[in-house]
Amino acid sequence: MTVWQIILVSSIAVLAIKLLGYLVPEQVLQTPTAARTANLVTVALLSALIVVQTIGSGQGILIDARVPAIAAAAGLLALRVPFILVIAAAAGVAAALRALGWAA
Amino acid sequence: MSAASDRREAWRASWAVGLAVAAYGVSFGALAVASGLDVWQACVLSAVMFSGGSQFALIGVLAAGGPASGPAAIAGATLLGLRNGLYAIRVSPIVGPGWAKRLLAGHLTIDESTAVATAQPTLESQRIGFWATGTIIWVGWNLMTLAGALVGDLLGDVSAFGLDAAAAAAFLGLVWPRLRALQPVVVAVGAAVVTAATIPVLPPGLPVLVAALVGVVVGIPDLLGSRGAAQPRLVHHDDVPPAPDSGESER
Known about the structure:
- Chain A has helices spanning 3-21, 32-55, 66-78, 83-99.
- By secondary structure, chain A is mainly alpha-helical.
- Chain B has one domain (3-181).
- The longest helix of chain B has 33 residues, at 123-155.
- In chain B, 59% of the residues are buried.
């Protein structure tokens, strides 16, 4: 697939899901099981993506400056620091460690 | 509260959440370009897909696996977008009838517009919350994506600027507000372990999809859950705090 095909197919799929929700009668999916499972699948996906972004490197695992950066981000989130600052801090920690030659 | 103060409060919440999330579009734009997309591809994603989690998931998989990982990237983005369908069911009565209005509302149905709308006390203020938040974020998110993509294009080697770590932190910020009970924490840890174990053996993108099954396995039988306790109705705002895509946590 080309990158454009991937972008268009996925964008249309995500948009279609939103629109489909407006066609569903309100009671159909409104069970505790559906709501709970949807929420937990979202948590599982996000958690998996954190791991891939933090230690993934193609089809392999690589421990580098991203690990201390994500630890710093977790600490700041626990302190209720605004989201955009947490992202900037994570980037800053990784960039600083690399500039100092302390981490790859 | 009076109707006027309800309206004011809805507008205030919309701007607070909207501006915080829009600012965050800059990191999406920069990361999209770093993942190998061009500026226009980044902008189309923000304009059409318009769902932060799905957008970050897509570029994350593409960055690791390139265009060959397309099917896994599409599947990951689509799975993360499933919750928007549930939000749509929830806000459908708030939006009301009229197919053109519902078509537009569908496009704006995301974590934050749903969260702000459902947190308001009256139907009128719920409508203001939904449309104002959705519109502010759509406009801001797209402008900031363009800005981020243009800047990212100039940066070159993004790891020197720590942008790869920023992507990981972005996902952490999205999941953080959801970790308020034992069950989601267990799912998050389980999914992380499954992902780490499968990264070396599966093609890029697939570990994320396998890890999603942890949510299904725990969710359907309600393992470690609060069966019998008062479950929030579908996407009651307790489930969807105004924070997820924004870090806005003062509410």
